[in-house]
């Protein structure tokens, strides 16, 4: 079992940057593929990006491609989401998840509690 805790959210102006972290407990972290999702008020949870267990494969949703970067440090049991050139439409609660390498929430078995990102115009 894996427990996930996100951090690094906050308020930022449009064009700014934030780096989210997701710390995992458990010695099996390196065996899980990791994903980032976000959910804005009144909207469904949306795929942001994913990274495979070794960090050699990444996949991003079109709205964030070229602006967001996912990385992981298996020695620290942590996955990161670097967000650059932020836009107001990026405002959402961001979640990390552990499971299979996929784009659907049901591909993932474990979820963090989420961290709020607010981008002001």
Give the topology.
Blueprint: E1 3-7, E2 10-13, E3 18-25, E4 33-39, E5 46-51, E6 58-60, E7 68-73, E8 78-83, E9 92-99, E10 108-111, E11 115-120
Keywords summarizing the entry:
single chain, 121 residues, mainly beta, 7-stranded mixed sheet, 4-stranded antiparallel sheet, 11 strands
Largest sheet: 7 strands, mixed
Q: Return the structural class.
A: mainly beta
3D shape: globular
Task: Give the C-alpha Rg.
Answer: 13 Å
What is the percentage of strand-forming residues?
over 45%
What does this 3D model show about the protein?
The strands form two sheets. Strands 2, 4, 5, 6, 9, 10 and 11 form a seven-stranded mixed beta sheet that branches. A four-stranded antiparallel beta sheet has the order 1-3-8-7, with no helix packed on it. It has no helices and eleven strands. It is mainly β. The mean pLDDT is 96. A hairpin with an 8-residue loop joins β9 and β10.
